[in-house]
Amino acid sequence: MIRIARTDLPRRTVTALARATEKIRAVSLDERYKNATDAWQKSSVRTTVRAKLGEMAHGSERCMYCGESRGTSVDHFEPVARSPLRTFDWLNHLLACATCNSHEKREQFPVDAVGNPLLIDPTAEDPFDHLLLTLSLGVYRHLTAKGQATIEVCGLNRPGLARGRMHARKVVVLALREWDRARVRDSTDEMADYLKTVQDQPMADVCQSMLRQAFSPGADVVFSDAPDLLALLRRDDLRDALLR
Known about the structure:
Layout: H1 11-25, H2 29-42, H3 45-56, E1 73-76, E2 93-96, H4 98-105, E3 131-134, E4 139-142, H5 145-154, H6 159-184, H7 188-200, H8 204-213, H9 219-222, H10 227-233, H11 236-242
Helix pairs in contact: 1-2, 6-7, 6-8
């Protein structure tokens, strides 16, 4: 999971979302959930919302939770069942794959003792404030209660994801070393190609974690098997190109 920059919607889409919300607000509390669900399924504005989320997502429209699979649906971060009035709230929309949306997260939305969400919204906060990726194993360790809940609810340590992250690390390492060779040859086109290979990879969290951990305490230990890679990850020009 990485930080995602949320972009603005077209004015007419903002207006359409506001009107839809007011229609839900106009019905009784008992009717709001069904009304909101039906309205969302029938609304043409979903197409614009989905397209905008795709533009925001990493690489080839990757899921904003796991980062592995292609995002196929609009997820309501705070579920419609819990908050019907947020059904058409742009700030409540994320792009998710079928596994994360329908099989892992579903309608779960844990909150703390005072009602604050215990799930990470990657468009509103930096996931790395709450999560630490163990690069050698491809699994997350939680740094906060919010990190722990997100790992559990979104299934961020399911076996397939861990294997995918370890594979992604190998691809990133190979691409960065080739980037450095191209840099020595002053081949800017090749350098750009290798950067694009890294940027288009699934599991963007792997590269982002590598870049961040390169300056963290214990970096020499984390990258003890590849000191040349650590030197690369500390290069300003590479970091400027890859850090989101």
